[in-house]
Amino acid sequence: MVNRLPIHQERIRMKCVHPTGAFIEFEQEEVERSIPERFEQMVRRYPDRIAIKTTTHALNYDELNKRANRLARAILARRGEAKEAIALLIEDRSSMLAAILGVLKAGKFYVPVDPSYPGPRIAFVLNDSNAGLILSDNDNIALVDELGERQSDGLNIDKLPSTFTNDNVGLSIAPETIAYIIYTSGSTGQPKGVVQNHRNVLHKIMAATNDFHISVDDRLSLLYSCSFSASVLPIFAALLNGAAVCPFDVQRVGPAGVAHWLRREAVSGYFSVPTLFRYFVEVLTEEEEVSSIRFVYLSGESVTRRDVELFRKHFPVHCILVHTLAIGETGTARQCFIDRETQIEGSAVPVGYEVPDKEVLLLDEHGEKVGNNQIGEIAIRSRYLAMGYWQRPDLTRSKFLPNPGSGDERTYLTGDLGFMLPDGCLYHLGRKDSQVKTRGLRVEVSETETALMNLDTVKEAAVLAKEDAAGNTRLVAYVVSSQPAPTVSALRRALAGQLPHYMIPSVFVLLEAMPLTPNGKIDRRALPDPQNLRPELETPFLSPRSPVETQLAEIWAQVLGLDQVGVHDNFFDLGGHSLSAAQVITRVIKHFQVELPLALLFQTPTVAEMALVILESQANKLDESQLNRILSDLEALSEEDARRALARAMKSSNKRSAVDEQSYESSH
C-alpha cells in the first residue's frame, strides 16, 4: 500500500518495479504477525537461496534458520520463556544476524552492543537493559569475562552443545511483543534505549518492500553496525522477503573498497548515510559504475544538491535516489524520490512526501499547528511508533503524546524543525536542541560535553556541530581548562575511555574563558569558528624533511583541513577518523602509484612512518640505477630514519648489491 503522491513522485517511484518480476506484495495483514513467523515463511519458500553473503562466506535460508533455532533452544534452556532482554556482544555480522533471529525465536528481545565501545558504555547498556543473558562469540567472550559480576550470564554461541536440535521452536509471539532495545545518545549524559515491537518492525518492512519492490532476487547492503537503528531496515527488508543481506565492514576496509564490493556482490539496494555515500562516490572512477544498483536509500543526515549530482554522475539511468526522514523512534516518516530528471531548487534537498500510516505535523512552541511555508517542530502521528524509552517513563511521556481523540495513535515530538510546501513536500531544517548527526550517527552533544566536564583538566566545555569545507558535519569542542592546559592528544585519550569514536570531537578549541550571555549562560553563537590551525599536540612540530614527506604532509593537510602537519603528528590526534583515513590512502595511492592497504594508516599514523613504507614500496619497482635516486630523500632524514628506510627498501627489492649500506652509513 502506498499513499497518494504527486504525479512526478509516483512516476519516479514506479521505476522501482523489479525487472525480474519476482516481487510479491507485502500484505497489510502480515504486519499482525511476528518476525520469526514471517522469516520461517521465507525459509519454507526459499530454503536454498542465499540469506547472508559476506566477503568470505554465504549462508542460505535453511542454514541460517537452523543456526537460529539451535541458539533459541540454548537461550530457552538457560533462561526459560520469560520476556526479557538478551544482550548481543558479537562483532561478526553473520553470527550477529543469526543471534538476532535466535533471540526473537525464543520470544525475547535483543539489545545489540558494539564490542568496540568503551567499557563503561558497554557496562551501562548491559546494566540499564537488565539483560538476562549476554551472547558472545570466541572473539569477544573474554570481554564478557572482564565485566566481572556478569561473567556467569555469558553464553558463547560458538560453543553450543550439540544436544540442541535445529527444529523450529514454534513459540506463539504476539505482534506487540518487544523485538529490540537499541540505545542512542542521551541528553542526560547517558544513552537511552528505544523500544520497538514486532508489529512496528513488520510495518516498516511492509512499506519498504512495496515501495522498492524488494524480492528474492535482491541483495541489500548492510554498512551499519547492528547497534544502530538504521541497520534494522536492510536486515529485515532482506530476510523477510527471501532476499540476501550483504554485510560489509566499512570501518575496517574503508569507503574506497565499497565500489568493488558492490559490483562483485551485485548489490541491488544500497543503504547508507549521506556522509559515507559521499566518501565512497568521490573516489569512484568512470570505469567503476555500479550497474546492479536499483535504488540508493539515504537517511540519517541531510542530502545536499552536490550529493544528487554525484548520484547522477555515477549511478545507472534506471537507478533512483531516495532521501528520507527516518528516526529510530518512528521509522521512515517521509521520503523523496529522485531520478536524473528531478529538479532541485536551491541548495536544500527535501525529505519529501508522506509514507503509509505516518502523518507529519508542524507545531509551534505552544503545540499548535503552523501553516504552509512556516517553520515548526516536526511531529509524527501514527500507531506504528516506538513503544517508548526503556525504563524512562518521564522521557516517554514528554516525547510521545497520546491521541487527543479516540484510537491508538500517538504523536512523537522529534525536536527537529521543518517547513512544508502547499503540495505536502517537507523540508528538514535541523535540530531545535543539542542533538545532531555526524557521519550519519545521532549524537547528543550534551553527552560529549558531560564526558569533557568529568575530566579533571577541564573547567568548562561546549560542543557544537559545524560543517567543514566539504560540507560534512563534525563535532567541535570548546574547552576552558585548568593549568597546565592539557594537549589535544591528552583530551582525546581521556574521551576514548568513555565515548564511542564517533562522539569524540574532530576539533578542539582551547579558550581562556567562555563567552557568556547576559543571564550568565554560555553564548554558543559567540563561540569562534575553528581555524585551520594545527592543534596543540604532545608531539612537537617538525617540518617535512624530504620530498616524499612534503607531499604526504600536503595530502594530510588537505584532507584534514589544516594549515600544516608535522611529520611526527598522529593522524587521529589531528582529528582524523576512518572515513578521512580512506581519503588519505586513496590520494596517496594515486599520487605515489603504490599499493597500500587502508589499515596502513592505523599501523603507521604519522607522515614519517608512512613515508618509509612508501619508499619501501617504490623500491620494489625500481631498477639498480633508479634505486640510488632515493638517497636524495634519505639524506634529508635523521640518521636513524635513513638507515631504517634504506634497510627496508634494500630488503624488499632484494638489491643489496646496488647500494652498499655500509658506505652510505659512513658518508651520512
Low-confidence segments, given as residue ranges, are: 649-668
As a percent range, the share of helical residues equals 25-40%
Write down the overall geometry.
globular
Strand content: 15-25%
Query: How many E-type strands?
Result: 25
Radius of gyration: 27 Å
- Average pLDDT value? 86
CATH homologous superfamily descriptor of the domain at 547-667: ACP-like
CATH topology of the domain at 547-667: Non-ribosomal Peptide Synthetase Peptidyl Carrier Protein, Chain A
Per CATH, which architecture of the domain at 547-667? Answer: Orthogonal Bundle
Q: How many angstroms does the end-to-end distance come to? A: 77 Å
Secondary structure class reads: alpha/beta
Supply the number of helical segments: 23
Report the biggest beta sheet as strand number plus sense, adding barrel if it closes: 5 strands, antiparallel
Kindly provide the name of the CATH class of the domain at 547-667. Answer: Mainly Alpha
Fold and architecture overview:
This protein is α/β, with parallel strands linked by helices. Among the domains are: 92 residues, GMP Synthetase, Chain A, domain 3; 121 residues, Non-ribosomal Peptide Synthetase Peptidyl Carrier Protein, Chain A, CATH 1.10.1200.10. Helices cover 33% and strands 20% of the residues. Strands 15, 16, 18, 19 and 20 form a five-stranded antiparallel beta sheet that branches. A four-stranded parallel beta sheet has the order 4-3-5-6. Strands 11-12-13-14 form a four-stranded mixed beta sheet. The chain is globular.
